[in-house]
Amino acid sequence: MAVHLSFSNHLRADGLSVAYPDRRVFADLGFAVAPGDRLGLIGENGVGKSTLLRLLAADNGPDASAAGPLARADVSGRITRPRRTGLLTQELPFAPDERVDLVLEAALAPVRAIERELDAAAEALGAGADADAAAAEHRYAAALDAAERAEVWTAEARRDELLDGLGVAGLGRGRRIDELSGGQRSRFALAALLLSAPDALLLDEPTNHLDDTAADFLEGRLRAFAGPVVFASHDRAFLDRAATGLLDLDPGRQGALAASAGDGGSGTLGGTVFGGGFSEFLDVKAEERARWQRQYDDEQEELRRLRSSIGGTARNVSHGRAATDNDKFLKYFKGENVERSIARRVRNAEQRLATLEREQLRKPPAPLAFAGIPSGSHALEESAGLLVQLDDVEVPGRLRLERLQLEPLSRLLVTGANGAGKSTLLGVLAGSIAADRGAVQRRRGLRVQLLEQDVRFADPAATPRATYERVLGERRAEQVPLSGLGLLAPRDLERPVGALSVGQQRRLALALVLARPPHVFLLDEPTNHLSLALATELEEALGGYPGAVVIASHDRWLRRRWSGERLELHQGSAAPVAVAG
After folding, report:
1. Cβ 183 vs Cβ 213: under 8 Å
2. Which of 449, 396, 402 shows the shortest CA–CA distance to 424?
3. d(CA 212, CA 160)
4. Contact of 30 with 15, CB cutoff 8 Å
């Protein structure tokens, strides 16, 4: 089966289904997004948000590339969308040696093509014969409409506005992509997509790597965008402010809705549309699940009562047994009416039991919950004193820091605009980046680990369980089993790592660090790619982490809740700071 694609000014999915040989992603999914509306996709990592966005963007079959992520999938359904639909993926499409100016010019290619078509249509209109006048006029009107929507006459001005609004105007257009930070590359990708002026936008985690100013700028652009927008995001503040509706791909919520409707709570893998804001949605979803759990518990109690009652009563009125003295006594007073009445109650109870067993609610699936920081870290002999100290450290063009001190229980949040040096600082602390000047002192025997923004596994064909055992060793993997951390669902432990979503891969990377907690735990944008539930649980667990924690983050929600020390970097430099334990 395949997806039937047609074109319109709105975006619509009907009966959309995706299944791989080892699992079904979603089935019979349907929704519609009108021009000017913005639909936010939400759900746990791995429920199909990125898959859905790629499918909506595909022009030729399930994936535009034969080797694409959907190439092995069985897909079906119908998609209607604008012909020029732009997609922002979490994996950036640029080659490391590409120059920024060429990337931006390539983004303008569709706009240039529309401008050329307008010129050609105008020439044909002026030179056409009377017999061709109607067709020429229609062609020119269509070209003019496309040119107005693509804003072809202000392309250069829009380019400068986008680069400035996303905070990358001053980086130099002659630089190579691999000379930029991860956040800068993401911003250029977003700028390039918006510069191409598509008629519909599909965005996968668009606020990853954006600071407050850039996130506000993007929100304003989406609010002013005339076409339909579908975006997946873990950013609760952005969802609250930018989305006009939500599509929950969590099958657990569909089961809860089915339970409320009284149809057995079977649910589907189709998704549920919600018309309110994200904060309201969380409250409603929690109430639905609590109601489902109460109904399930009540039914299970009734099932136990019926089974017990039927078993006990049936023994008392069992046919074919010899009459007891008590039976003779009852029959003497009431005859056989008592036995018929009891038998009727047994039959009614048996019928009720059969119906309830057939139509009972399924058990609410246990939500994936982070189990916290495991025990077993190798404590340093000294319980006090400095773990790491940086003095007059400089990485030219990327970081300059007078002093930074970390003690055994330090909690430090590093903030600053993209390119200010946050990831560079973490790299210096981890030892993966060497400082050109200054001193970096680490306590003897210190173990430092970094959760990077972009996760890459050497063997994408290996399963998470095999990867976990290979990195940690069999003994530690047995002491702290991967399944016990609550970071990956049991069904995903034997799938190839390369088949997991970006969020699921980052959960595995997090598990590899937490299974043997280091003395200094460095996290670069830890909430990127993670579901809101897991991000919240991780933040709470880090408060009790048995070592030093350093987090670099743009996350507005995390920053509002942070109670530890802070260090704000300003374009490669920061004021001196002493961090208390």
Report:
1. no
2. 396
3. 19
4. yes
Are the CB atoms for 264 and 362 separated by under 8 Å?
A: yes
pLDDT digits (tens, 9 = 90+) for 69-115: 677 778 899 999 999 999 998 877 778 888 888 888 888 888 999 98
Q: CA angle, 456 as apex, 271 and 188 as ends, to 5°? A: 75
* Model pTM above 0.70: no
If one looks up domain 388-574 in CATH, what number appears? 3.40.50.300
Q: What does the pLDDT look like over 486-511, one tens digit per residue? A: 888 888 899 999 888 888 898 899 89
> In the chain, where are the structural domains located?
278-312+323-359, 388-574
CB 89 within 8 A of CB 50: yes
Amino acid in position 243: A
Of residues 50 and 371, more confidence is placed in 50
Tokens of 331: 């029959």
Q: What angle do CA 402, 424, 195 make, to 5 degrees?
A: 125
Which residue shows structure tokens 């199909």? 48
Rounded Cα distance between 529 and 534, Å, is 10
> Residue 41: helix, strand or coil by DSSP?
strand
The C-alpha atoms of residue 150 and residue 336 are separated, in whole angstroms, by 88
- At 372, the pLDDT band (50, 70, 90 cuts) reads low
Tell me which amino acid residue 307 is.
R
